[in-house]
Inverse folding.
């Protein structure tokens, strides 16, 4: 295709503002999907995505419209995937900024808009859901116009649901989004903006060609790893894969299949070039995925350990950001320490493990990555509280921080500031988007956000606040490791790295919880919370003599046997911490209640 006739665009929106619905409507209006086979939310393929209404994996669809080729690139919609969003934006020249006409701008709308502006995209402001009785198109057109600096009358109004205004929007894309520009004679350079594992075909890599041409049966080179592969198939998606034997030229968007079985061999952000005539420089902006949040994952039934390993291996084929290594816990047995991009990524992985692989799992409290500098100048990276040095030789501890943006009605400013202050936030600034809505910006430690920050924010603002955050380096902090000890023995699964000011509260809370959950033993069991050798909280489990058979008043032998067997069964699920028997359920309960 002549690049002059190509328009590459994406839709950016806050969750639930109707991106998938609009995308579906465009597929239908351009005739790519006929009305009969129109399945609700065609673009969101995974069940979890559909249920949660989020799009995890971006995809690209080619839409013919008015003698032009529109490539619609679907960006993931959540903060954890900012890097993937930024890569898919880089594959476009334009972005539809979609805002719910009954809700107005939300934190994610802003975050994505800033990313799109950084990528120099042409922005098309659009209000969606104008069919809703609660829609306030005039009010929000003004808000949107104020934000991007256009006239309120330039804001398009559509309904993805009914289709109103969608044709005009497609025309507008053709008229205003710049055509791609590239050097057709240069060595090939294509940006990988997504990479998906398919059980039958292996990895399907989505690319946007910037310069040159990629053909079928060509040896290609992945520039970040220097690996070479052969393109077995190359084509476009419309809406199913259609091989294009002529290959892909400047500005085109499509997929390629090389037979590799692992998405880590085809990384998002990498540059594909031709092995025979390779480009000198890769496209800018490649980053290796960097897990920000870690948690221990253990099978509740220790026999399921091999299945858990297998399931993680399989998930990793499709998720280059997922990393894990075996770990053993005295309390929980054999499991894995798993690294995630963020909280949502963690929830998704866990849910897939349970749902798609039928595993029952227990996870330890999530923690971020700390950098510890010792007095002798040596340094270590801590992804697990058990690796936190317990000696007194620590010079400094650094924690990751975020730049967080919160959007809410102005009446909640006080509540929001209180929450953020309580979590060591530093106010960066505050702006009114309109009379009654504010944008509040904070620097917040990531470690404070991953503990029910979002839930608290929602409940204190009656659901009206929205949050978005991006990594913003690290800061030094007064952090300590709190251990929980049973009869003097540390229970590794409960160790946590917390701020000094919160150590006492954490210790008291955990000790109380465990006292309630651990059954009495035949001797007294002290539960202590300690920082190093210093005990900061203590509870006691009183002793009992438990004689199960005493209840049976002699008589019935078979009943006695049953009881004994039952007790043995129970013992199997008991973990020994020193001399103390703790039922697995106690650990599970202590870790799962917030
Ligand atoms: P996404 O999270 O941005 O992909 O949003 P979805 O497309 O999944 O839509 C979220 C919800 O809004 C769904 O319940 C849709 O049915 C509804 N919705 C989307 N577009 C419209 C619209 O134009 N009008 C109305 N009334 N509802 C819509
Ligand atoms: Mg969606």
């Amino acid at each position: 295709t002549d690049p002059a006739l190509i328009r590459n665009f994406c839709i950016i929106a806050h969750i639930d503002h109707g991106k998938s619905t609009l995308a579906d409507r465009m597929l239908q209006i351009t005739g790519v999907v006929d009305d009969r086979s129109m399945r609700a939310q065609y673009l969101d393929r995974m069940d979890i995505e559909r249920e949660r209404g989020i799009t995890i994996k971006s995809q690209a669809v080619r839409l013919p419209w008015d003698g032009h080729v529109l490539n619609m690139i679907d960006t993931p919609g959540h903060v954890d995937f900012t890097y993937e969003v930024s890569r898919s934006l880089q594959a476009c020249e334009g972005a539809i900024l979609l805002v719910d006409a009954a809700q107005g701008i939300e934190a994610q709308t802003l975050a994505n808009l800033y990313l799109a502006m950084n990528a120099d995209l042409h922005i098309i402001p659009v209000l969606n859901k104008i069919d809703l009785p609660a829609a306030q198109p005039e009010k929000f057109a003004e808000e949107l116009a104020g934000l991007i600096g256009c006239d309120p009358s330039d804001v398009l109004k559509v309904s993805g649901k009914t289709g109103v205004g969608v044709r005009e929007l497609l025309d507008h894309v053709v008229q205003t989004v710049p055509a791609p520009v590239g050097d057709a004679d240069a060595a090939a350079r294509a940006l990988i903006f997504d990479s998906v594992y398919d059980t039958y075909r292996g990895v399907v890599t989505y690319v946007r060609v910037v310069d040159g041409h990629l053909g079928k049966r060509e040896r290609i080179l992945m520039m970040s790893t220097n690996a070479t592969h052969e393109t077995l198939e190359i084509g476009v998606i419309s809406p199913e894969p259609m091989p294009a034997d002529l290959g892909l030229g400047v500005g085109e968007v499509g997929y390629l299949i090389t037979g590799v079985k692992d998405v880590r061999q085809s990384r998002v952000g990498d540059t594909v070039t031709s092995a025979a005539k390779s480009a000198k420089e890769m496209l800018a902006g490649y980053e290796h995925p960097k897990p920000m949040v870690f948690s221990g994952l253990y099978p509740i039934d220790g026999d399921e350990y091999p299945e858990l390993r297998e399931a993680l291996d399989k998930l990793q084929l499709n998720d280059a950001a997922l990393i894990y290594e075996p770990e053993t816990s005295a309390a929980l047995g054999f499991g894995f320490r798993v690294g995630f991009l963020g909280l949502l990524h963690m929830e998704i992985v866990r849910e897939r493990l349970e749902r798609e692989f039928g595993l029952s799992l227990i996870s330890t409290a999530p923690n971020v990555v700390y950098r510890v500098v010792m007095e002798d100048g040596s340094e270590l990276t801590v992804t697990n509280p058990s690796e936190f040095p317990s000696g007194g030789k620590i010079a400094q501890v650094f924690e990751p921080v975020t730049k967080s943006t919160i959007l809410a009605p102005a009446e909640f400013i006080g509540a929001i500031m209180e929450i953020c202050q309580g979590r060591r936030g530093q106010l960066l600034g505050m702006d009114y988007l309109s009379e009654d809505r504010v944008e509040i910006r904070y620097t917040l430690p990531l470690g404070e956000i991953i503990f029910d920050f979002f839930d608290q924010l929602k409940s204190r603002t009656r659901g009206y606040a929205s949050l978005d955050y991006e990594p913003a380096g690290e800061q030094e902090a007064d952090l300590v490791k709190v251990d929980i000890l049973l009869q003097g023995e540390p229970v590794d699964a409960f160790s946590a790295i917390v701020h000094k000011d919160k150590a006492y509260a954490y210790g008291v809370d955990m000790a109380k919880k465990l006292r309630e959950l651990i059954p009495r033993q035949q001797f007294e069991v002290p539960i202590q919370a300690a920082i190093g050798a210093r005990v900061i909280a203590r509870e006691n489990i009183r002793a009992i003599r438990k004689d199960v058979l005493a209840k049976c008043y002699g008589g019935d032998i078979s009943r006695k046997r049953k009881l004994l067997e039952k007790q043995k069964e129970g013992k199997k699920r008991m973990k020994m911490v020193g001399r103390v028997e703790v039922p697995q359920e106690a650990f599970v309960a202590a870790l799962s209640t917030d």
Notes: DSSP finds 14 helices and 32 strands in the chain. The chain has a mean pLDDT of 88.
